[in-house]
Write a structure and sequence with these properties.
The protein has 209 residues and is an alpha+beta fold. The chain has helices spanning 21-37, 63-69, 94-104, 160-168, 177-199; strands at 2-3, 14-15, 41-44, 47-51, 56-62, 79-82, 85-91, 115-117, 122-124, 139-142.
Length: 209
């Protein structure tokens, strides 16, 4: 569709200014999340973004650690990756539990590159499954399923009693999902840091004559 030239007497049509591709893509992504999943989406500096702390929180960890532990995660729980970072969706409120769980699991004193995003936070909306997005955009490794409730499949801290019971028996299959997830994520984050440190080139000592 074209608009007439603003020059008087000119019959040469002037094309309309095309829509910005990024803005159009962001609008389509927002529509998909709102229509297919019923999630709240907002515009952000890099396109559509999802608010955390309402229906879900997010644990972020290095992607190499995340892929190493992915087989230990519930396959129904959504997982995304953005660049070198993996994002695990957990139950709302899980972000507040992370510091205490790391201390309780005796990981609190170690640098793990494991962080949580909770209330009043945001993540970039991953490109919907089957869509083509910008190379730098977040993408789904395990996408949410349209038409299925999200909350029942998210790792959650079920109760303090369950945590205490799991601790009393020395860990095992009875742990609340969030406890197992945090413990597994911390383990693989620590291993990934050790691998990266051992692979880094070592500086040779200076030789003095």
């Amino acid at each position: 569709m074209v608009a007439s030239s603003s020059v008087p007497g000119s019959a040469v049509p002037t094309p309309r200014r095309p829509l910005e591709a990024a803005a159009c893509g962001s609008a389509l992504v927002r529509q998909w999340y709102e229509t297919e999943l019923g999630w709240a989406v907002e515009p952000g500096p890099r396109g559509a973004r999802l608010r955390t702390g309402e229906r879900f929180d997010v644990l972020e960890l290095p992607a190499d650690a995340g892929f190493a532990m992915l087989h230990r995660c519930d396959p129904r729980s959504p997982v995304a990756v953005r660049g070198e970072t993996m994002q695990l969706l957990v139950a709302a409120g899980g972000a507040d539990e992370l510091p205490g769980l790391l201390d309780w699991l005796e990981w609190g004193a170690l640098p793990l590159d494991l962080v949580a995003i909770g209330a009043d936070g945001f993540i970039d909306a991953p490109t919907p499954p089957g869509w083509t997005g910008p190379r730098e955009a977040a993408t789904w490794v395990r996408p949410p399923e349209p038409g299925h409730e999200l909350e029942p499949v998210l790792p959650a801290l079920t109760s303090l009693t369950a945590v205490a019971t799991w601790s009393a028996v020395g860990g095992g299959g009875g742990a609340p999902d969030l406890v197992r997830l945090v413990d597994t994520a911390a383990t693989h984050c620590h291993r990934a840091r050790l691998r990266r440190a051992s692979a880094a080139p070592r500086r040779q000592p200076l030789a003095f004559s």
